[in-house]
Amino acid sequence: QLQLVESGGGLVQPGGSLRLSCVASGFTLRYYAIGWFRQAPGKEREGVSCISSSSTRYADSVNGRFTISRDTAKNTVYLQMNSLKPEDTAVYYCAAAVYRVGVACSVGTKDQYNYWGQGTQVTVSS
Questions:
Q1: d(CA 30, CA 28)
Q2: What CA–CA distance (Å, rounded) separates 43 from 63?
Q3: pLDDT single digits (tens) 17-74
Q4: Which residues of the chain form beta strands (DSSP E)?
Q5: How far apart are CA 82 and CA 24, in angstroms?
Q6: Cα angle, residue 71 at apex, residues 69 and 74 outer, rounded to 5°
Q7: Burial 44-76 (b: 16+ CB within 10 A, else e)
Q8: For 13-88, where are the E strands, in sequence order?
């Protein structure tokens, strides 16, 4: 059974950093694209970043501040978040989509991601 488990969220002051982890089980990362999404109260779930064997992507709102990476040996994807802002406050989810060779991953839509974790809360506040 394919499962995704997020961790690493917490409370941080503006300008601080957090590293989120997404541990996958039941499948091999190489054959999937992994996306990070977030949802704040009253807002739609939005794409933050994604990674596959051939591409990485970032939403404009986090580009230059967040970095996505993966460790295939550990079946884990990370999201390093620096220079955090209060507007980054949300529940962060990782999700998996089947990877197609030569096709970039996407943060523009949630439809292609069929498997989701439970989420981890990130709160940025002074």
A1: 6
A2: 20
A3: 999 999 999 988 888 999 999 999 999 999 999 999 999 999 999 999 999 999 999 9
A4: 3-7, 10-12, 18-25, 32-39, 46-51, 56-58, 66-71, 76-81, 90-98, 115-116, 120-124
A5: 24
A6: 145
A7: ebebbbbbbeeebbbbeebeeebebebeeeebb
A8: 18-25, 32-39, 46-51, 56-58, 66-71, 76-81
Q: What is the largest CA-CA distance in the chain?
A: 44
pLDDT > 90? residue 93: yes
| pLDDT value, residue 1 | 83
pLDDT grade for 99, boundaries at 50, 70 and 90: confident
Q: Which two tokens stand for residue 120?
A: 């981890």
Distance CA 119, CA 94 (A): 7
Nearest-CA neighbor of 36 among 120, 124, 125? 120
